[in-house]
């Protein structure tokens, strides 16, 4: 869909920025899926109060890592692009800043959806994914068509903030007891 609104050069820069920004987020998702989710699931089976404590501890670690990742992308994306890529890919820097901010949000949200799923409640994750899809498709189409590439990529960067709010009632429901 994005290729409809931008040039081939812009699409190439976008693809590079998306690939670079997604790497840390994918690594964290692997850790969450292979370490945190089994740990929290085991804790829930034994004692849900312990699971809540594990989640709260993990949430602070993920918040810290998300902040570090977000600040690093915002502060150093242009330098990284200048070091790794030829000058014709210069616009990748600002795209990487926005998409890196998105990756930082995904890192922060990772333990929340895992805890909800570990409690056996997939409704909130499904609602968040549905909201993400609707907001991304409609928002990206509208922003690119109406305003241009900067605003279209900004929509991609800020959709995770909005979809996180869908998870909050689910996490509150499960943590309220503890």
Any overview of this molecule?
By secondary structure, this protein is mainly α. It has one domain (6-175). 87% of the residues lie in helices and 0% in strands. It is built from five helices and no strands. It has helices at 8-46, 48-84, 92-118, 123-146, 149-175. Helix 1 runs antiparallel to helix 2, helix 1 packs parallel to helix 3 and helix 4 (123-146) runs antiparallel to helix 5. The protein is globular and about 55 Å long.
Main features:
87% helix; mainly alpha; globular; 178 residues
Detail the topology: elements first, then pairings:
Blueprint: H1 8-46, H2 48-84, H3 92-118, H4 123-146, H5 149-175
Helix pairs in contact: 1-2, 1-3, 2-3, 3-5, 4-5
Summarize, please.
The chain is mainly alpha-helical.
**Helix proportion range:** over 70%
Oligomeric form of this entry?
single chain
For the secondary structure, the number of strands is 0
Structural class by SSE content = mainly alpha
Question: How many domains comprise the coordinates?
Answer: 1
Quickly count the helices.
5
**What Rg do the Cα atoms give?**
18 Å
Q: How confident overall, as mean pLDDT?
A: 91
Strand share of the residues? under 5%
Q: What's the shape?
A: globular
Low-confidence stretches: none
Describe the sheet with the most strands: none
> Distance between the terminal alpha carbons, to the nearest Å?
44 Å
Order of helices and strands: HHHHH
């Amino acid at each position: 869909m994005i290729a409809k609104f931008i040039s081939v050069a812009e699409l190439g820069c976008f693809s590079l920025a998306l690939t670079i920004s997604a790497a840390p987020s994918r690594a964290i998702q692997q850790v969450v899926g292979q370490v945190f989710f089994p740990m929290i699931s085991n804790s829930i089976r034994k004692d849900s109060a312990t699971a809540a404590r594990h989640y709260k501890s993990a949430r602070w670690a993920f918040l810290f890592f998300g902040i570090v990742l977000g600040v690093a992308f915002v502060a150093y994306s242009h330098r990284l692009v200048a070091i790794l890529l030829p000058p014709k890919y210069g616009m990748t820097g600002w795209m990487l800043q926005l998409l890196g901010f998105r990756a930082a949000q995904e890192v922060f949200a990772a333990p929340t959806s895992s805890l909800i799923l570990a409690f056996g409640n997939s409704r909130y994750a499904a609602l968040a994914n549905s909201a993400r899809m609707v907001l991304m498709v409609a928002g990206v189409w509208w922003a690119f068509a109406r305003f241009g590439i900067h605003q279209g990529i900004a929509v991609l960067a800020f959709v995770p903030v909005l979809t996180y709010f869908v998870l909050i009632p689910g996490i509150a429901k499960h943590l309220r007891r503890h």
